[in-house]
């Protein structure tokens, strides 16, 4: 193909992808409303609104969040993705239009990544387009979009770009390509979904093992060692670039409910059940979360975590036998990646997973089914390779095609016969076999219609795909026409399933809620607020600017969770992502949080906090954390006259006697209370302890009369500052040293990497594992294996 024709085909591929994205997002782009997403409404929208308002009003990023969980660090929140380079739209636009536009652009970016990667694999334009459409608009991606998983969107789309540069490194042996792959990996990490980045790293390491193995077979041990070096460079560069976010997050994670890993039950939560492979061909067979017909589980989120539908034709194309040695090597790797992802996605349903859970990283995450994005990516690649080969002459099916065809044909036939010939027995056995909870009879009509439509659509596209390929094999279509028709067919299949996931949304103001909020102060000095659903969403404190004791976040300080659970008389439990509050706000431990307002279904209840925001005591008791938490619930504990310190604080107590009654002349005046600073004027007749109703966290620093002073942890959770006798100006500021260290590492890494990439003139001495046995070039309608370059 001539260069001018190649550029024309590439332009056509880009236009096809843009047009496909525009059709998917037309309901949002044309309506002027925002894009709906469940977790975006509950979680990401308040976070992004908070950042946008802080940047717009103060010109700085927020590092501390006083509006959730009685105060919590914000810079540590990796899902807020404050340092994600492509998140700049959230600083320029309000979060609602920024989310819609950013998601649309990320879809196009993911598709462009697949086009580039498949081009690097020497796949014809039509095959590249088919791979890009499959990857970008798969059911897995679109269902997570409906779920509002902003951080998933920002990380999912980067895997083809990572593999593009990893593949180029494998072909050339040039470390600058490994450096580029590391930079892309760093951007993916900054996207805010550590689990997707972890699985990407796992896939890169598997690739490295395959590549090193190929070179060892060829007797090229030095090149194999270079692959290991390049892989280490990719991982090092990725983490170093993302250090600005990774280091603060690691600090917080160690103090959170995830510190030290999660239990096996949590690590296998939302595993893929073998029965759910049925939905890989019939994605609506268990209903759909969009119209609330999902019936397999009462937990709607299980739908999008296991929805790995990639269309029918891509699955069929994956069974086309490849002749090129380079493509066969690629297929072996991606087949292994498919098997590995399915093996790990089974999680708790996999008898070997207890061994897997002991490996580094796997006990840090839940929902093993999320690794299905590697399955989607791999199928997209295999479909493009199959598409490329189907355009040549005398192509054949591989040996696995017959059992797949028989199984799929039998499945569609049984479902069609059951729906139309034995409707009641068919659905009775379907529900009895697959439903985890009783099915709501009120939804049966909708379930029947959804399942019927799913079966009809699946059978139609299966028959059409097989007939289409048979006609192509018999020469009834030219490759160009066949390729674009195939890409259109895949798009139509995915559009009919996934278009409903793109829902317009605009927050509707609640006048009664706004009126109630207007009576509240934005400062915790005046007291905090406790809300319950449905009166408020968990993160509404951040959205509307009032200090809430609750919130919704995958990472919460373990001590704060324990404190709330103890206040409610509950047993310690780390599997918590949502905190509503305390049952008895006037209970002794609850009083320390200074709850001023309680929103319930019946309305707003106000009362004056019975405990000061800041006060001075002169008595300290030293106890271990769990003993202190229990003692605080007893009648012996008097928080107005004593403070409970931990044994580690010995040596930092006040220099004078600590077992004297509170002085009558003691006083505390709050002069200023901002996001990341507090200023007080305190007067002590004798040495004592300044106790604040603020959560203790590393990074808070104190100055007493211009001199640095320690901040101790008192009463299990709160900040305590030792004060000598006299009048003092007390200042507290929040400084995240992990952020500062990480920022230096990230900036230096970026400068060095860019310089190295553009200045490097290293030459690869041979080709990598995909190209080691030869490259594929187009020659008419046939593939020619041109052998190794010399």
How far the N terminus sits from the C terminus, by CA atoms, comes to: 23 Å
- By secondary-structure content and strand pairing, the structural class works out as alpha+beta
Shape: globular
Radius of gyration: 30 Å
Oligomer: single chain
Number of helices: 28
Averaged pLDDT, please? 88
Q: What is the helix fraction of residues, given as a range?
A: 40-55%
Number of separate strands: 22
Strand content: 5-15%
Order of strands across the biggest sheet?
A: 13-14-20-16-17
Major β-sheet profile: 5 strands, antiparallel
Question: Which segments are poorly predicted (pLDDT under 50) over 5 or more consecutive residues?
Answer: 655-662, 761-790
Q: Secondary-structure blueprint of this entry?
A:
Blueprint: H1 3-29, E1 34-35, H2 38-58, E2 64-65, E3 72-73, H3 89-92, H4 95-120, H5 125-136, H6 139-147, H7 150-156, H8 159-172, H9 175-190, H10 194-217, H11 221-241, H12 243-255, H13 264-267, H14 301-305, H15 312-317, H16 325-345, H17 353-356, H18 372-390, H19 401-421, H20 423-434, H21 444-473, H22 479-498, E4 504-505, H23 511-517, E5 528-530, H24 540-544, E6 551-552, H25 558-567, E7 578-579, H26 588-591, E8 595-600, E9 603-606, E10 614-617, E11 619-622, H27 625-631, E12 642-645, E13 667-673, E14 677-684, E15 688-695, E16 700-704, E17 707-709, E18 712-714, E19 718-723, E20 726-734, H28 737-759, E21 776-779, E22 782-785
Parallel strand pairs: 5-8, 11-12
Antiparallel strand pairs: 1-4, 2-3, 6-7, 8-9, 10-15, 13-14, 14-20, 15-19, 16-17, 16-20, 18-19, 21-22
């Amino acid at each position: 193909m001539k260069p001018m024709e190649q550029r024309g085909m590439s332009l056509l591929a880009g236009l096809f992808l843009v047009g496909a994205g525009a059709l998917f997002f037309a309901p949002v782009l044309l309506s002027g409303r925002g894009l709906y997403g469940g977790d975006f409404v509950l979680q990401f929208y308040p976070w992004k609104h908070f950042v946008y308002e802080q940047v717009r009003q103060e010109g700085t990023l927020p590092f501390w969040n006083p509006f959730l969980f009685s105060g919590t660090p914000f810079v540590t929140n990796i899902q807020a993705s404050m340092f994600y380079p492509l998140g700049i739209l959230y600083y320029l636009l309000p979060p609602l239009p920024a989310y819609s536009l950013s998601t649309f652009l990320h879809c196009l970016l993911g598709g462009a990544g697949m086009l580039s990667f498949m081009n690097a694999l020497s796949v014809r334009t039509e095959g590249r387009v088919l791979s890009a459409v499959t990857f970008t608009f798969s059911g897995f991606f679109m269902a997570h979009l409906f779920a509002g998983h902003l951080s998933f969107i920002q990380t999912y789309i980067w895997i083809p770009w990572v593999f593009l540069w990893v593949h180029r490194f494998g072909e050339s042996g040039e470390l600058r390509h490994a450096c580029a792959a590391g930079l892309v990996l760093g951007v993916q990490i900054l996207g805010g979904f550590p689990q997707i980045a972890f699985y990407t790293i796992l896939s890169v390491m598997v690739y490295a093992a395959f590549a090193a193995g190929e070179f060892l077979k060829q007797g090229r041990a030095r090149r194999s060692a270079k692959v290991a070096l390049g892989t280490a460079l990719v991982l090092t560069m990725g983490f170093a670039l993302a250090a600005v976010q990774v280091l603060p997050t690691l600090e917080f994670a160690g103090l959170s409910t995830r510190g030290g890993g999660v239990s096996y039950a949590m690590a296998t939560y939302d595993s893929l059940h073998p029965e759910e492979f049925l939905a890989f061909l019939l994605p609506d067979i268990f209903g759909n979360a969009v119209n609330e017909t999902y019936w397999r589980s009462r937990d709607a989120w299980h739908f999008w975590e296991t929805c790995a539908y990639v269309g029918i034709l891509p699955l069929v194309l994956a069974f086309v036998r490849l002749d090129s040695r380079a493509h066969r090597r690629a297929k072996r790797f991606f087949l292994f990646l498919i098997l590995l992802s399915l093996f790990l996605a089974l999680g708790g349903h996999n008898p070997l997973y207890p061994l897997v859970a002991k490996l580094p990283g796997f006990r840090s995450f839940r929902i093993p089914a999320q690794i299905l994005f590697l399955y989607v990516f791999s199928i997209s690649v295999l479909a493009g390779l199959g598409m490329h080969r189907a355009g040549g002459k005398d192509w054949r099916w591989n040996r696995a095609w017959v059992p797949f065809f028989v199984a799929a044909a039998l499945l569609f036939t049984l479902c069609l016969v059951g729906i139309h010939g034995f409707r009641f027995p068919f659905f009775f056995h379907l529900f009895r076999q697959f439903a985890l909870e009783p099915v709501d009879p009120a939804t049966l009509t909708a379930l029947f219609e959804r399942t019927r439509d799913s079966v009809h659509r699946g059978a139609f596209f299966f028959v059409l795909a097989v007939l289409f390929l048979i006609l192509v094999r018999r020469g009834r279509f030219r490759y160009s026409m066949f390729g674009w028709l195939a890409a259109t067919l895949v798009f139509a299949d995915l559009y009919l399933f996934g278009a409903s996931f793109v829902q317009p949304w605009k927050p509707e103001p609640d006048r009664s809620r706004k009126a109630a909020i207007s009576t509240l102060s934005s400062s915790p000095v005046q007291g905090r607020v406790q809300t319950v659903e449905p009166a408020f969403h968990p993160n509404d404190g951040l959205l509307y600017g009032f200090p809430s004791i609750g919130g919704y976040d995958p990472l919460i300080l373990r001590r704060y969770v324990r404190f709330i659970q103890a206040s409610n008389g509950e047993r310690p439990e780390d599997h918590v992502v949502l905190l509503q509050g305390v049952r008895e706000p006037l209970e002794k431990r609850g009083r320390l949080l200074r709850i001023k307002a309680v929103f319930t279904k019946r309305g707003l209840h106000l009362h004056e906090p019975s405990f000061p925001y800041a006060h001075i005591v002169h008595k300290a008791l030293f106890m271990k954390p769990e003993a202190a938490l229990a003692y605080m619930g007893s009648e012996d504990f008097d928080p107005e006259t004593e403070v409970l310190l931990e044994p580690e604080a010995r040596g930092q107590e006040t220099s004078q006697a600590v077992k004297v009654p509170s002085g009558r002349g003691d006083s505390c005046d709050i002069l200023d209370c901002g996001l990341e600073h507090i200023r007080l004027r305190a007067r002590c007749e004798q040495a004592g302890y300044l106790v604040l109703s603020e959560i203790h966290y590393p990074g808070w620093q104190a100055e007493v009369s211009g001199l640095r002073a320690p901040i101790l942890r008192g009463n299990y959770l709160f900040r305590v500052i030792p004060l000598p006798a006299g009048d003092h100006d007390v200042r507290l500021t929040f400084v995240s040293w992990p952020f500062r260290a990480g920022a230096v590492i990230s900036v230096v890494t970026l400068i060095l990497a860019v310089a190295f990439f553009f200045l490097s003139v290293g030459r690869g001495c041979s080709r990598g594992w995909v190209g080691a046995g030869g490259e594929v070039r187009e020659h008419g309608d046939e593939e020619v294996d041109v052998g190794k370059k010399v």
